[in-house]
Write a structure and sequence with these properties.
Layout (H helix, E strand, L loop, with lengths): L7 H25 L2 H8 L3 H7 L3 H29 L2 H29 L8 H20 L9 H20 L8 H22 L1
Pfam families: TetR_N
Protein name: TetR family transcriptional regulator
Keywords: DNA-binding
């Protein structure tokens, strides 16, 4: 970002540009979007846009940062409720909350995740998101001591994060998925629940 906002009005301008970036992506796609499109949607001149962002890619980076930070807020906000639930209900609750979040604001984040792998974006934010998810899963395990019986807890924890949350993100990014969301969440729940039950039997 060229010019860091110091006042509320400037921050509102930056937010408007980022919001316009999401809207333009929905309307025109990644390659079709231009800074002119974004400026027009934000209701500002292209010159004003360039005071804050050097180019379209810088706006995409800001969009990505916002996406990840809001995802982190989502997971942290729902951690307390998650800890109260059994493993199956907890998985379904978390994935349903993720789905609702992706669908809000006319599905702007759904459109975004369809293009995110095409963006040349630094991986730091995704690493941060995965770290937050891993920490949330560890809190869940500590709140449910029976899960400590699961062998190779670290690798299984990685699977819970990447095989669950990121599978839903990938599923939701597909225009015409081959299965329903309910089938996906049931399958993920079945796999993890079976893993836990097997560990308890062995123990």
């Amino acid at each position: 970002m060229r010019k860091k906002p110091q006042q509320q009005r400037a921050q509102m301008m930056v937010n408007a540009i980022i919001d316009a970036g999401f809207i333009s992506l929905m309307r025109h796609g990644k390659e079709g979007t231009t800074t002119r499109h974004i400026a027009d949607i934000a209701g500002i001149s292209v010159g004003s846009l360039y005071q804050y962002f050097a180019d379209k890619e810088a706006i995409y980076q800001a969009m990505h940062n916002q996406f990840v930070q809001e995802a982190i807020v989502l997971f942290k906000h729902n951690t307390a409720e998650l800890l109260r639930l059994d493993i199956r209900a907890g998985i379904r609750f978390l994935l349903q909350e993720l789905r609702l979040w992706l669908e809000q604001n006319n599905g702007r984040y759904l459109y975004y995740v369809r293009y995110v792998l095409q963006f040349d974006i630094a991986p730091n934010e995704i690493d941060l998101l995965e770290s937050v998810l891993m920490d949330m899963c560890m809190q869940y395990i500590m709140s449910h001591p029976q899960l400590m019986k699961v062998p190779n807890i670290s690798s299984n924890l990685w699977f819970m994060v990447n095989g669950g949350v990121f599978a839903v993100i990938r599923f939701m990014s597909q225009p015409n998925p081959k299965i329903s969301f309910e089938q996906l969440t049931e399958s993920i729940s079945d796999i993890i629940e079976a893993m836990v039950k097997q560990a308890n039997v062995v123990a």
